[in-house]
Amino acid sequence: MKKSLVLILAGILALSLCGCNNETESSDSSGSSSSSSSSSSSSTSSSSVESSTSTESSESTPFELSVKTPLGELIELSDIFDVEKYNAEIDLSKVTDISELADSMVYTDIAYYAPPSGVFKNTLDDPASFDPETGVFEGVPTDKYSDLLAAKEGDVIGDFTVKSAKSTYILYEDGGGYFASTEMELDGKAELTGYIAVVAGDVYTFSDGDIRFVPTSCSPGIPVVSIQLAADHTYYTQRGSVFYFGEDERFTSDYQEMRLGNVSDCPADLTGVPRDNSYIKVKITAENLRLESTPEWFTNVYGTITDITIL
Questions:
Q1: Do the beta carbons of residue 150 and residue 167 sit within 8 Å?
Q2: Radius of gyration of the chain (CA)
Q3: From CA 216, how far away is CA 180, in angstroms rounded?
Q4: HSE toward the beta carbon, residue 48, CA cutoff 13 A
Q5: CA dihedral 67, 68, 73, 76 (to 10 degrees)
Q6: 164: nearest Cα among 180, 152, 156
């Protein structure tokens, strides 16, 4: 009996000691878990603060973007970029990486031009003035006019008022960009003489019914929007260039061949003007003038004939 009581008491004591050990381990484990949770929370909070700081820093850190105008000036992108007016698909304030702007187009409200030279010559009116050996017209200088001018909406150029002005720049991936084109619209009218033709069928970049016009005089002189890029990366307007028209005729003027709408929507009475690609001499009044130029690519003068007299 005594022996059995001793064994029972020994068992109770063993269980008691095991329970104490379990409570201690549980307490230690709980403490470790609490410490780990606290550490994780602290780490997450720290990471969140760092991420927020990093984002704010990235968004608030400006990067320099500048482009060179045809006048040789360097202007900052922030001075020419107008998201709402020109380029709504790109919000510059949200761009944090310059490469995001690669190949994007941005615009200024400035157009570039040269004053007219007033020189007009052609082989229909004066065949002897053209020298086929040299490929130039007698007495007409061929030079690069580099004193370009800038105009904005509302500026007055001679008898014309600038209705709109725009230049386009293409951005590089690593910042900066290059001048791509310029254009302006004019309020006012010009009296011109010259040779007119109506396109029959589709010819080169002309469509059936388009009106082509080779000027032989212009009053008042229309600003010359014809920008070319030199080898040294400066810009200029070429004087004295010779162009073809008709069967094999030549002419030189500041404006190349003008595009004056289509017979389908011309407000002037074109009765008597052939519609077979042949040219006849006329006097016209032109309005709604729009001038555009892309270096090394094209130069165009668009307008509407509001009055015409066959000469």
A1: no
A2: 38
A3: 30
A4: 6
A5: 0
A6: 152
pLDDT tens, position by position, 24-68: 444 444 444 444 444 444 444 444 444 444 444 344 344 556 788
Q: How far are the Cα atoms of 99, 120, 179, 192, 233 from residue 239, in angstroms, in the given order?
A: 39, 11, 21, 20, 18
Whether 143 and 150 have beta carbons less than 8 Å apart is answered as no
* Cβ count within 10 A of residue 252: 22
| Burial profile 65-81: b = 16 or more Cβ within 10 angstroms, e = fewer | bebbbbbeeebebeebb
Q: Which tokens go with 67?
A: 């482009």
pLDDT tens string 108-163: 889 999 999 999 999 999 999 999 999 999 999 889 999 999 999 999 999 999 99
Q: In the predicted model, what is the mean pLDDT of residues 189-211?
A: 93
Query: Which of 152-161, 172-181, 206-215 has the weakest average pLDDT?
Result: 172-181
Q: Are 194 and 282 in contact (CB under 8 A)?
A: yes
Interior CA angle at 269 toward 263 and 273, to 5°?
Answer: 65
Beta-bridge partners for 187: 161
Helices and strands of the chain, counted as H and E runs: 2, 21
